[in-house]
Design a protein that fits this description.
This protein is of the alpha/beta class. It is 34% helix and 8% strand. It has a four-stranded mixed sheet with strand order 1-3-2-4, sandwiched between helices. β2, α4 and β3 form a beta-alpha-beta unit. α5 packs parallel to α6. The longest helix has 19 residues. It is globular.
């Protein structure tokens, strides 16, 4: 099921064709298989993701109300705050920084039922069009390891293109999600300015 898009996975969870636990474990296996060559994932929250997936499955079994992305894993660029999970911004200055609260965009995905899987690489402070930094190193393009996936959301684009994540959150001021998407052959959307809160 890696390489299936988030909407398809959500539909299969809702119809009980797939278990959230199966989906999360399949993506964790894919990360283990390909991330050593790509370095797109910089912080993995495997145990927490499995626990959240188990809870999502229990809700389905009970018939509780669920959100539109119930049980679907997602990744987050390491510039966006994630409660209890390091957000280091690709900078030695922020090494080990653990926010107390989720960024609004992260919180909204979690409210929709999505399961946080990992944080993805970026240039320091998102300030480059290639993904490399002194803290977590260089990310490679999954189609050609000698090339860049772009930046600044290059870790996200590489993770999605390589089937490690069906859905990701990046950020974009100039070209930071759209450029990496073009480099790796995926789709990215820069929301209209002001449409999404930038808290966190």
């Amino acid at each position: 099921m890696p390489f299936e898009d988030a909407a398809e996975l959500a539909a299969q969870v809702a119809s009980k064709e797939l278990s959230p636990v199966e989906i999360v474990r399949a993506h964790l296996d894919r990360i283990q298989a390909v991330n050593p060559q790509l370095n797109a994932i910089v912080t993995l929250v495997a145990d927490r993701a499995i626990e959240e997936a188990k809870y999502a499955e229990e809700k389905l079994v009970r018939g509780d109300a669920t959100g539109p992305l119930h049980g679907v894993p997602f990744t987050v660029k390491d510039s966006l705050d994630t409660a209890g999970v390091p957000t280091q911004r690709g900078s030695p200055i922020f090494k080990g920084r653990i926010p107390a609260a989720d960024a609004t965009s992260v919180a909204r995905l979690r409210q929709a039922g999505a399961v946080l899987l990992a944080k993805t690489n970026l240039p320091e402070f998102s300030f480059a069009t290639e993904t490399d930094n002194l803290l977590t190193g260089r990310t490679n393009n999954p189609w050609n390891l000698d090339r860049t996936p772009g930046g600044s959301s290059g870790g996200e684009s590489a993770a999605i293109a390589a089937g490690m994540s069906p859905l990701g959150l990046g950020s974009d001021v100039a070209i930071s999600v759209r450029g990496p998407a073009a480099h790796t052959g995926i789709v990215a959307l820069k929301a209209t300015r002001g449409r999404d809160p930038t808290m966190g």
